[in-house]
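User: Run a structure prediction on this.
Assistant: Running it now.
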Amino acid sequence: MTDEGADPQQVLAEEILADARRRADRLRRRAERDAKQTTDQAQRDAEADRQQRLQRARAEADRRRRLTLATVTVEEGRIRAARIEEVLDGIRESARERLADRDGYDYREMLVRLAAGAVRAMEGRAVVLELSEADRQVYGPDLAAAVRDRVQRDGLDIRLASEPAAIEGGVIVRDAEGRQRWDNSLAARLERLWPQLRRRLAEETGLLDERQNNNNQQGISNKQ
């Protein structure tokens, strides 16, 4: 209700001020509301960014961890493979030494078998046996006859070479014309047999399984 005795200008001024206060209050409340929404959105954006950064950091850390593990696995496999090769090389050297020392077997019988096996695989009737100087002294005189008896081929002529062979043991067999030559020296025999012996040793001792597991692990690591 308007006071009839009030000054109209004063009344108008009061109404204007009241309306301005109401507008200002609405603007303040709206500003506070907008500010709160902006602050809340900023907090949500900051949290989302933090989570994204955290996820990226975790992903990078996991990638580095897997790379490190893969590198360790490959290096571990390489070291294991080298140790296995050392073991196999040691076995090979031990076998060579035992052969050279004539340890654990009938050396003369072995010479006869090596020579007879080579003669059977060759054509012709004239055969020459080559031995080391030491073996010529011990086994040379009757080795040809023993091989001939073992092969039992009619008309077979087996002779001992006039010069010693540059081998540590075993026998080299050739025909008289020099067209066929069979190296059954101990070193050559071991060299030819070693791949098969190596695989059998690895299988029977479990070393081959370790090599295969290691290769599989390396393949998986490389794929990663």
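Residues 210-224 have pLDDT under 50 and may be disordered.
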